[in-house]
């Protein structure tokens, strides 16, 4: 489905649920449009199930863009790569503790688990980057093990420290900078997720794995408490 959402953009909807295979299609369509959008393509904004295509209306009109996008969508069966070969893989250190993750104890109690079990369940799987948003460099990662999924906080915090690792329902994320936030905080990473030179560390389709580090290791990596 292709919908006109403004005088210079269309929204391409490729599905209706979070799915790694769907992310593959969105990444492939982005690559195809990058190759075929010279002179008129302004920006591409991928998300869970959609792709926003921003174009120069002085170079192409809605009908032209729709025709080109449909051509790209029609070739997705040939363009789509396997999810395991997409993007980059990231190993992110995390200091999991009540000191760095003030919701860790409450989450463990809510789920009837020990803190060590929560840490193991969070760090034992690879997460895919499904979307970027909220803040520059904020990646929405999934999917969290059902045993440790938890809803957003009823009352968000006014300030969440940069590097905080958090859970909200089936998603997990790293706050790239200090900001308000309502996710459940379980740890903190020293990894810089965004800067003005290299921009976002993560891209749609990347894979992320977390690994636990001690307090001493976290501080030696430049982490702050």
TrEMBL record:
Taxonomy, superkingdom: Bacteria
ATP-binding recorded as keyword: yes
Domain Carboxyltransferase: 2-202
SUPFAM superfamilies: Cyclophilin-like, PH0987 N-terminal domain-like
Residues of the signal peptide: none
InterPro entries linked to this entry: CT_C_D, Cyclophilin-like_dom_sf, PxpB
Keywords associated with the record: ATP-binding, Hydrolase, Nucleotide-binding
UniProt keyword Cell wall biogenesis/degradation present: no
Any Pfam family hit: CT_C_D
GO molecular function: ATP binding; hydrolase activity
NCBIfam families the record matches: 5-oxoprolinase subunit PxpB
Name this polypeptide is given: Sensor histidine kinase inhibitor, KipI family
Lineage, top ranks: Bacteria, Pseudomonadati, Pseudomonadota, Gammaproteobacteria, Pseudomonadales
């Amino acid at each position: 489905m292709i919908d006109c959402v403004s005088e210079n953009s269309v929204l391409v909807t490729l599905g209706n649920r979070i799915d790694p295979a769907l992310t593959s299609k969105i990444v492939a369509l982005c690559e195809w449009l990058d190759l075929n959008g010279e002179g008129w393509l302004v920006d591409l904004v991928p998300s869970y199930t959609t792709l926003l295509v921003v174009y120069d209306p002085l170079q192409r009109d809605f009908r032209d863009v729709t025709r080109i996008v449909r051509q790209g969508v029609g070739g997705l069966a040939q363009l789509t790569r396997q999810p395991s070969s997409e993007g980059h893989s990231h190993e992110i250190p995390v200091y999991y503790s009540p000191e760095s993750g003030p919701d860790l104890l409450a989450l463990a109690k809510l789920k009837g688990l020990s803190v060590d079990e929560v840490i193991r369940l969070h760090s034992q799987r690879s997460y895919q980057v499904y979307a970027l948003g909220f803040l520059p460099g904020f990646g929405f990662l999934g999917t969290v093990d059902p045993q440790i999924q938890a809803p957003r906080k009823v009352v968000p915090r006014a300030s969440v420290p940069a590097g905080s690792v958090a859970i909200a329902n089936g998603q997990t994320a790293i706050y790239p900078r200090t900001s308000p936030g309502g996710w459940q905080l379980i740890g903190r990473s020293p990894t810089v997720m965004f800067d003005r030179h290299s921009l976002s560390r993560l891209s749609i389709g990347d894979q992320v794995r977390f690994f636990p580090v001690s307090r001493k290791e976290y501080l030696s990596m430049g982490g702050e408490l």
